[in-house]
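Thread: Newbie trying to understand structure tokens

Hi all, I'm a second-year student working on a class project, and my supervisor (Dr. K.) asked me to get a predicted structure for one chain before our next meeting. I've only ever worked with sequences, so writing a 3D structure as a token string is new to me. If someone could post the tokens and maybe explain what I'm looking at, I'd be very grateful. Here's the chain:
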Amino acid sequence: MFEGLEIWNDEKYRKLQGTYPVIFLSFAEIKQNNYNDAVEKIKRIICEVCQQFDFLKNWDGLTEIEKKNISNISYNMSDVMAQDLIKNMSNYLSRYYGKKVIILLDEYDTPMQEAYVNGYWEELVAFTRSLFNSTFKTNPYLERAIMTGITRVSKESIFSDLNNLKVITVTSDEYSSCFGFTEDEVFAALEEQGLSSEKEKVKLWYDGFTFGESRDIYNPWSIINFLDEKKYKTYWADSSSNGLVNELIRTGSAEIKKTMETLMAGGIVEKNIDEQIVFEQLKTNKDAVWSLLLASGYLRVEAFRTEGRLNKKIYSLKLTNYEVEQMFGTMIERWFGGADVPYNEFINAMLSGDIESMNEYMNRVTRGVISYFDTGKTPSDEESERFYHGLVLGLMVDQVDNYILSSNRESGFGRYDIMLEPIDKNNEKLPGIVIEFKVFNQKKEDTLEETVKNALRQIKEKDYDAELIKRGVKEENIYHYGFAFKGKEVLIDGR
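---
Reply by user tm_fold:
Sure, no problem. This is what the structure looks like when written as tokens:
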């Protein structure tokens, strides 16, 4: 299968071709929402892989008990049998071929991600730990194994018994050019397909991955599919498991949403990255989500430095490419998809200055959607703030072609300013917009009406218009909006 490729020119590798028994598994499709279904799916995959070697039960080199064990492989096998099956099959294959086996496991951590999102993580850890211990730790018939995933394994509890791992991450120099297509390879393929004119756009969509010192690494799945379909689509983003990423951003703090605003606007953020991701830390460690996004390929490294006596690793990060940007845009739009009012209706009302419709739409949206941002049952001011930060992201996604969005957190709980600067300053249908969010303060205010007046007063007192005017927006074409909220209640005023 490698004939005609560059690796085939090396005699050393040609001689290795087809000489080792190989067991290949992929956990990419294990995305069940409960423990029992996940384990059943794992058993099915192991069963189907091992049934490829059904011929062994007719081999005289196996005992009758071993032959019976092969015949008893089924979807309904016990947990213990499933956990030991790869090891046992390694035994049989190594004796049959006279060589120890090579085991390849792709997307080993996809089940763990789904388990974390759906609340059965601890249960699956126990099952997976026994499976991996038998397959990789206590397997004397193993020559070598390769496991791929997005979470580093050294601190992960499913690997607590394994000490024979060599970990390669996105910041490692070793094999750095082997995790995707290089630019030379992609451009050569485009020329061969008569697509030389598409180089710049292909680079925008699918370039941007970094591994160690290697830059301009392209996503292989996206490139292969683009060459086949010749259409610009989110091939990799649609095929990857982004449920965990979605959950962490959607339910994350207002600070996480603020950082996402910067990234969606094309900005660069600096974060402390710890590649040894532990699932239990994802909601308690404020930097863990960025480590996950980097490991997943959704962020790329622009620069790197260490600081302090402990040499803390600080990375300058941005969204990897346009495909990733599109993925996040779609994800954010779906946050508002459960409401009975199309989200763009609110945007249209805001652009036209229709305060009455803005209130009608937003109150219907908040009732239907705000709980989606809440990890608890009772909406609090903090959880409401999360929703409005999600709203900011939605504004950006829907209006990225029309507006430059900037934001700045103000002092005091729940205060957050948004500024929408129209790209086309001469288009009067695209007003400059300043938004002030303010949480109802029962010590200072009796009603939401007072709160929203305070929000509008703050816009004037801080002279937010000056920045827009300085950038060329006409003063008469600047709208002010105050958002006052208390849990799911919201009142908007302005213009």
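A couple of things are worth pointing out once you decode it. The chain has four domains: 6-159, 181-239, 243-327, 336-494. Residues 336-494 form one domain. Feel free to ask follow-ups in this thread.
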